[in-house]
Input
Amino acid sequence: MTRNRALEPTAEASDQSLLSSVAKKNEEAFERLYKRYYHRVMQFVLRMLRDRNVAEEVVDDTMYAVWNGAERFKGNSAVSTWIFGIAYRRALKAIERDRRFQSFERDELAIERAVDCSDEANPENVATAEDLRCHIDAAIGQLSDDHRSVMLLTLMGHSYEEISKIVECPSNTVKTRMFYARKKLRGMLPDRAILALTDAKGRSKWEVHTHVS
Output
């Protein structure tokens, strides 16, 4: 396979140029795009499905769709928005195929952990970054599919406009879903976790970490 000079490590190829090369079945370009997005898409999909094996299948299916459908990308959105849209739709299909991925929403133990993560055991030390992440991840897991997806995408840095394209609904609907998602989280999370999750104006500031093993 001839090495494309435009894809040399010293050159910062944009997502758009990489995808254009993928459309021409350039395997090197696809490998770079795959590495660029794999972990971000995995974070999102795994938190949607709560099952690593199925999440890996969905991510692989997503990237396979990127490989096969790159030539159909019209440039009406960012490449990242397009890729996350594919991942979102495939994650929903996986949930629909087997509703056991949502069984944790009815799991009283999971709810208990979201509300009270070892507070009684050690109230002075519970407010560490890891404990807060435990609180937040568990609480987000209790949200509905729609609310969980917009919350996760927001925490990953996507704008409401981008999210509306990913989940294929109006921006106002995204804002409404975020309102109710935050409202429900406030009912489950302790104050210190809410402070870690939002700034003084209630805007999201929590980073999604690769904490999915």
